[in-house]
Amino acid sequence: MTTKKNIRNSIVLSLLITTLCFPSVFSNVEANSLNLYATNHGMILPYNNSYLLMPEANVRFTINSTADLKEYLIKFNANYTIFNPNETTSSLIGAPFYYLDYWGIENLEVLANGTEIDSELFHIEFDENSTWFEYLSGSDQRDIFISNLTFYANTSFILNYSFDYKLPWKIGDIKFSLAEVWYDVGTARAWSGNVTETVEYVVYGHQPFYYNCSGRDETVRFYKDGIIEEIDDGYCYSWSWNNERIKEDQIEFRFSLFEEKLTPIDKMIMIIVFPSVGLVGLIFVSLRIIKVRRKRKVANP
Question: CATH number of 36-261: 3.40.50.920, 2.60.40.3680, 3.40.50.300, 2.30.40.10?
């Protein structure tokens, strides 16, 4: 019993020595998990003509972190095909986003059949009685690009939205630890019929620590599997629907810079010191075991 107790005490002491080394490594890490920013995007929405069809949609986010990881460079490009099976009609079309005017979008283009059209940006606070509220996830405050368009009878119409923006890791004295980039796939349910849609996140450099495509059926949350493909210096994450009603609500991407905020010295300590401390602890435990066994042999020749 005494031998087992000595061995156990030795192991506990070894682990304690290793644990006490952690504060010196993480003392230089800048992290404040309470600071988070998010951007939200969604498929275009019809205001007053629910019989319009959205047979096809292709959406791509291209996310590239700068070499010093001070900001993310994000490009958004989406093509939506609208088909009008009835007589010629006009309708307001809204493209919902979240606080894009705050981040400062650049190179904005809204094209209808390849021709640039005018769109106005409105900041709207939604409630449960608002048009489109049921199709939006996350925040009830959105920026909406509104366009007034004419859809000719029995004709397809292609809308393209593209723009760039940056997500910095620091604004003034505020440092961010988490960032989210969402896409509301549930907005597809605002259109009649089924849709064939592909949503891609092409991420270069720093990768997300969490991502999913999910929805909720009453009180049960469910998830849709995606495809991950390795590309040069990054990965492509994609989800697809083939001529179906989309049940899911959103795609969610989360990024964290906790690991990347370690200084070179911190990383060297993690690479060299931790394994060394573990090895020393193992040697220490082994010597204690050998010493105890020798004492037993001397006591019981």
Answer: 2.60.40.3680
Burial 179-217 (b: 16+ CB within 10 A, else e): bbbbbbbbbbbbbeebbebebbbbbbebebeebbbebee
Distances (CA, A) of 180 to 33, 209, 214, 270: 13, 11, 15, 28
User: Please, what is the average pLDDT of the chain?
Assistant: 74
pLDDT per residue over 69-106, tens digit each?
A: 677 888 999 999 999 999 998 888 887 776 666 666 78
CA dihedral 271→277→282→287, nearest 10 degrees, is 140
pLDDT at 160: 94
Q: Give CA–CA dist 301/295, Å, rounded.
A: 10
| pLDDT class of 190 with cuts at 50, 70, 90 | confident
Residues 209 and 258: their CA atoms lie apart, in Å, by: 10
Q: Nearest-CA neighbor of 202 among 105, 100, 77, 102?
A: 77
Cβ atoms of 157 and 151 closer than 8 Å: yes
Residue matched to tokens 């690009």: 145
Per-domain boundaries in the chain: 2-29+263-299, 36-261
- DSSP assignment letter at 192: B
Q: Where are the alpha helices (DSSP H) in 150-301?
A: 264-268, 274-299
Q: Which of 11-20, 93-102, 106-115 has the lowest mean pLDDT?
A: 11-20
Could you say which DSSP state residue 270 is in?
I
Residue 128's pLDDT band, with cuts at 50, 70 and 90, is low
